Amino acid sequence: NPVCLLEALRATGDKVALFCEGGQIHLPGNVTSLYILLEKMVFPVTTTKRKGVAKYPSFHPKFWLIRYVDEKNNYLYRVVVLSRNLTFDRSWDVTFCMDGKKTSAETVKNNPIGDFISYLIKQLPETDYAAEKQKKMKSVIRELKNVEFSLDSKEFTDFDFIPFGIGNQYGCDQKPLYTLLEDSFHEAFIMSPFLSGGIIKNFNERSKYMDHAEYVLITRASELGKLKPSDYSNFEIYTMKDAVVDGEGLISEETSDIQKQDIHAKIYMLRKGSDSSLYLGSLNASHNALHGN
Predict the structure, then answer these.
(1) How many angstroms separate the Cα of 156 from the Cα of each of 30, 95, 188, 267, 271?
(2) What's the pLDDT tens digit per position in 34-57?
(3) pLDDT in tens, 192-212
(4) For residues 245 and 217, is the Cβ–Cβ distance under 8 A?
(5) Span 250-259, mean pLDDT?
(6) Helices marked H in the chain — which ranges?
(7) Which residues contact 62 (CB under 8 A, 6 or more apart)?
(8) Beta pairing partners, 82
(9) Alpha-carbon span 65 to 60, nearest angstrom
(10) 0.85 cut: is pTM over it?
(11) pLDDT of the residue at 171
């Protein structure tokens, strides 16, 4: 119903701020003039050119922060960390979410989210509707100081938010970054659809003085050509079966809407002794991801 769609877009536009990579908005086949209402909620981000190999960094996060309010005006926050883009891609992704409730005590645990939202506020255009978005986003930052998120996990006891690439002033505890990027390990499990040889080599050589270190990498078959044998000498490497990647084309009679299904999840799990760290998000095992995006 066009009238219902009009009302839905109008109501949603005031409640959503959606930031995306500049130049990466694609219109569907059936274009409607109602899309003009999306301008109140969709904001492209164009990152600045840098020196070095990763000189054209992408705006790459897949992160949702949702605020719910009940009839008594109590609020609840839900944070969702994904590897999935807002597209119709059918690749295999991973999603994690947890809920947070208001507490009387302040917490510094959510400061990195506040830092990230502050970065996004700077990307807003100078318009009336963007000014209203900015006001609401600043309110969210203030509220998050008194929100306690619950992991609700028997396996993991603590968590950190780690915004990558937005500048040193937007910080978080450096220990989790050290564990991911520099520390040795007894076991490494990495899943990444896109690779750089230097990044995999860093993992491959990092634990040469550790006894019985184990390495596993799951990636796309198309990425293996980027690696030299010396980059992954310690790794067991797995890729998706062709029957899965191309499976939709084998069983579908339609030809216009067939898509491949490959790995798109980004997972790092590192174990040292009895301590395990799990990293989820949008971070590929690539140079651009670690040094640009």
Answers:
(1) 45, 16, 17, 15, 12
(2) 888 888 899 999 888 877 766 788
(3) 999 999 999 999 999 988 888
(4) no
(5) 70
(6) 2-13, 111-121, 128-144, 174-181, 197-206, 242-245, 247-251, 287-291
(7) 81, 82, 83, 84, 85, 281, 282
(8) 95
(9) 16
(10) yes
(11) 47
CA separation, residue 182 to residues 141, 213, 231, 269, 290 (Å): 31, 15, 16, 14, 12
Cα(139)–Cα(10) distance, integer angstroms:
22
If phi > 0 it is left, if psi is from -120 to 50 it is alpha, else beta; for residue 23 that is left
- For the chain, give the mean pLDDT: 90
pLDDT at 169 over 60: no
Structure tokens that stand for 112 in this block: 């990195």
CA 267 to chain centre: 11
3 state SS of 41: coil
Tell me if residue 222 falls in helix, strand or coil: helix
Sign of the CA dihedral with 106 first, then 108, 99, and 136 last: positive
Give Cβ neighbours of residue 40 (< 8 Å, ≥ 6 apart).
13, 14, 129
Q: Over 70: is that where the pLDDT of 58 sits?
A: yes
